[in-house]
Amino acid sequence: MVTTIAAVDDHLLASIDGFFNGLQTSDMKDFMSQWDNVDKDFTVEGATSPDTSSLGLGVSQCIEILCDTFINLKMQTEQRAAELGENLIAVQGTMSPNPSRSPSPSRATRSPSPSSQL
């Protein structure tokens, strides 16, 4: 397997797309495979330059920040949902139940009208 600097750069940039595709499909297998290939690319002698190493570090940090951000958003969302649920329960507890209308009497239990008694 011959790996060039350009190929490593391409793999690095493609890994960002793979990351977002994995998030969208909730399946990170392809991204993990791409990232393993990037890792292998960096171990091939002569396949990296200082610019490629810098790009690799930048991509790695970017993905790390994105992961941390998504985790924090998920935790904040779950916390806010729990707070809203507690607020809803508290509000429901303070509301009085709707007064129910008494059922109308059925025709069978009504008194006969005066005109029908003639």
From TrEMBL:
Residues 96-118 have a biased composition (Low complexity). Keywords: DNA-binding, Homeobox. Residues 88-118 are annotated as: Disordered. The keyword DNA-binding applies. GO terms for molecular function: DNA binding. This is A27 homeodomain transcription factor 1.
